[in-house]
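User: Can you help me understand a structure? I only have the sequence.
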Amino acid sequence: MSNSKDEKLITAMAEAGVGYGHRTSRLHPKMKPYIEGVRAGVHLIDLGKTAEKLQEALSFLSKIKKDNKQVLLVGTKVQVQSLILEVAQEVEMPYVNQRWLGGTLTNFKIISQRIRDLIEKETQREKGEFERYTKKEQLEIDREIDRLKRNFEGLKTMKELPSAVFIVDLDKNELAAQEARRKDIKVIGLVDTSLNPELVDYPIPANDDALSSVFFILEEVKKVLK
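Assistant: Let's start by predicting it. Here is the structure, written out as tokens:
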């Protein structure tokens, strides 16, 4: 990027609150290189470094898109659930916006079977194949479908392991990062000042609490994945 583009990006990130970290008492030592200063007891992230790391992550994601591979988008905090859903649907990528199920990547064979169960049951219901059952039995089937949807709806298009996992709330989904790395899947993640940037392959130093910050980063991701 040119300097003018850098400056525009940094200004936009500042306005979105990307640079506000956590209180100084919560600093992870390995985030020190990304800290610019302190304001009112809160660490400020060096947005120049955020811009650099964001561009590295976007370049990598762009390559995955060109190779027609998938990126699994993960964000399960209540405040980001609808945002993850919206972005994933726009870029036609799989997502997890409820609870991360252990084994989603490391035990993908079993997860795939559950996804197939969901698709099969939904198809049978659409065709009216459950109408021969009692109302009580139909209600139980509906509940089972709802449960499967909560866990696997976002994974229905994931026919194989993704090429990358993008996590917006690493504090809540460290297990997702661990599973990905065990399967040699690259991990991109927002890393606030309280987190270890070495948990991911492409750390993006950023405020992961403010919705405006998460929204800004996801909008940049959306541009390269559409």
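Now, to help you interpret it: The longest helix spans residues 47-66. The chain has two domains: 3-105+161-225, 108-155. Let me know which part you'd like to focus on.
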